[in-house]
Fold each of these.
Amino acid sequence: QVQLVESGGGLVQAGGSLRLSCAASGRTFSRYDMDWYRQAPGKEREFVAAISWSGGSTDYADSVKGRFTISRDNAKNTVYLQMTSLKPEDTAIYYCHAPGDRWGQGTQVTVSS
């Protein structure tokens, strides 16, 4: 079974950058497509970005295209979310997700205006 631990969140001014990390346990991490989701206060959890098991294919929500980049390092069992040009509306708890309905505990991102 895969366990996920996110890190890298914090408080940043609008226009700033953050890099989130999701460390996964388990030997089969490299077989999984991985996703990032986020949930803002009072809103439903929404898809942010996805990456295939090899890293060769990625997908993004329209709201983050051109600003966020998902990547992974299978040797380190880690998936990343590089976030640039952050906006106040990016404020949310960001979650890492793996197949089998596996979720991390989330990391808070707050963007001040």
Amino acid sequence: QVQVVESGGGSVQTGGSLRLTCSASGLSFDEYAMTWFRQAPGKEREGVSCISASSAFLYYADALKDRFTISRDNAKKRVYLQMNSLKPEDTAMYYCAAYGYNDCSGPWWSEHGSSHWGQGTQVTVSS
């Protein structure tokens, strides 16, 4: 059974940092690209970042690439999202998922390409 669990969320002030962790089990982790998404209240889920199975390819939403960094540790079956200079508009539930193409090719930013979603971890940024 595939299980994906996000952790590391919390409440921070504007300008603060958080590091999210996604732990996966029950799948051949090193064969999957992994994605991070977020969903703010009343908004659609949006793609944040994608990392290929080998970490060779990294992709970010344009508005986030200067502040967010994705990484992974295949030995530990974990994906990380380092978020710096956080803003109130970053407030959202953050989700991790496995992507259908191991090199992040295709529209990784669309939630329809990812599966095995976790329950999410809440990030709240106050001004």
Amino acid sequence: VQLVESGGGLVQPGGSLRLSCAASGFSTRWFFISWYRQAPGKERELVARISSGGATNYADSVKGRVTISRDNANNTVYLQMNSLKPDDTAVYYCKSNVTPWGQGTQVTVSS
């Protein structure tokens, strides 16, 4: 069972990215799925999470700019990020309580 992150890249401040978290070996529809990020020299922090029922929670630092959603048919969870700031630069990971940490996807916000 694993989750694989993708969709990161280099974007200018104010830009947008959509990260994908694709599951294999299990169905995400029954689990909380969370997005975390870790910036250089900082601890890993929770960005957003979504419950099996679709309830969502967001870190204060991203509220209003980030939306987590799930596509159960494709067994994928997304993180839509808008109005990106340089402080959003980090490696982004998705996680459930039945999967190990993956490689993450790098997001760099810079002009």
Amino acid sequence: QVQLVESGGGLVQPGGSLRLSCAASGFTFSSYAMSWYRQAPGKEREFVARISNGGSGTRYADFVKGRFTISRDNAKNTVYLQMNSLKPEDTAVYYCYVRQLGSWGQGTQVTVSS
């Protein structure tokens, strides 16, 4: 079955960096676009970034442009989210998502605080 396992979250100070990973299994990873979403306490889940199946096409939410970079390694069945210049408002649970399969990971907590 489809499995998406996120990792790499944690506590970081404002201005710091984190790299999230999402390890995928149970489907042909290289055939699917992958996305990251996030959900802050009391808020709806929101789109963060998307990458095409081959990795050549990316799209970002306006609030992360220039700070976050999505990438993928199809040989490792893994998608990444490099997050730089983190702000307290980036605090959320971050989820990996395959829209065409309707599958979500369990999420990884990112907390930005001094």
